[in-house]
């Protein structure tokens, strides 16, 4: 799906040494700190490793977060926080204000599941952890509710794109494809609306992407709805539906150009260059011409002035976030291990002295070259 899904830049993070001299007073505490350093380093390496697969990423994240749990939650599984909850600050860049054309069926399933898992992670953070922050997220920052909600909905929409591509390949009923496309367009519209109150200087590019995808899948919905109407001998209404598909496809084409010219975070993808995009234009044109021919020879029906209302509900293929939970606390965390951290030995923080602002280097993302466009088929 290279150059089809818009992505904001990867978040970069400042190094964390987990060195608590004097505080980590015993071998068990020192081992926890050492393991945290190595598992965090491994996890960050995988973000830019092109050979990484979902299993590798899950194993690495579970290894790190199972150790980090001892810094967050009480070991007795109560609602109490760990005494180490505020021992370490983490610094990240901000994605907005800071810094495959053809896939196999197995790859499509992996993309589909990964996006549902991602939606579940964003949802879990938004509902269960962000409210516990001692300092509320600033407006427009990555941990702010609007951005997290936009990520949840965008992941759902993109996962449904895979479902639609699969439904088209399997030649499912036009009514189902129209309903899925309509629901997907609504997802993109919802995500765009969620970002509408953000500063355009850093949200405009993302919003252009969401808007063009909304128009694209609305065109899909009207196109396949037109096929459904024609099959029901409602040729006049079918023509009007196809005309509306033509209008939204033209909007999507114009927005693709605007998106490419809009400055903002993240690499610029090129959806209009995909055969999957161009095929819709041909499909709309050919289906509309067919409807017009049949209406001229067979049906002689009046073409409505108003476009048909799309009140379509998909009964199959709708995407819900996969519920997410952090891994259990590592077995290395025991009461004795926790006791080995002596917070009374922690150096005093002299807040009267100004501290130099730490610069976090951006993540050097791999340069993924687009492959030959063979049509975004799922085989």
Automatic annotation (TrEMBL):
<dbReference type="InterPro" id="IPR038898">
    <property type="entry name" value="BROX"/>
</dbReference>
<feature type="compositionally biased region" description="Basic and acidic residues">
    <location>
        <begin position="343"/>
        <end position="372"/>
    </location>
</feature>
<feature type="domain" description="BRO1">
    <location>
        <begin position="99"/>
        <end position="379"/>
    </location>
</feature>
<protein>
    <recommendedName>
        <fullName>BRO1 domain-containing protein BROX</fullName>
    </recommendedName>
</protein>
<dbReference type="InterPro" id="IPR038499">
    <property type="entry name" value="BRO1_sf"/>
</dbReference>
<dbReference type="Pfam" id="PF03097">
    <property type="entry name" value="BRO1"/>
</dbReference>
<comment type="similarity">
    <text>Belongs to the BROX family.</text>
</comment>
<feature type="region of interest" description="Disordered">
    <location>
        <begin position="342"/>
        <end position="379"/>
    </location>
</feature>
<dbReference type="InterPro" id="IPR004328">
    <property type="entry name" value="BRO1_dom"/>
</dbReference>
